[in-house]
């Protein structure tokens, strides 16, 4: 996982390194807010005896042009307000 702190605002996309407070000391845990968006990079298939895929994630910032374009496109397609808009979005994403 890649987190370039110079490209994100922690006031908008806060995260916390919580490995010092974790029950599992050997793990490097990071806690993100629910609205955090990541870009999926390289996807590595599992090794012969492992069923876990490895996915490289890069945190995005609020000024990411591709994310802004996608957000605007979705807003144009999903018009309306409140629960009606939420329902249309849920139908769109499946």
From TrEMBL:
Name of the protein this chain belongs to: Uncharacterized protein
Superkingdom of this protein's organism: Eukaryota
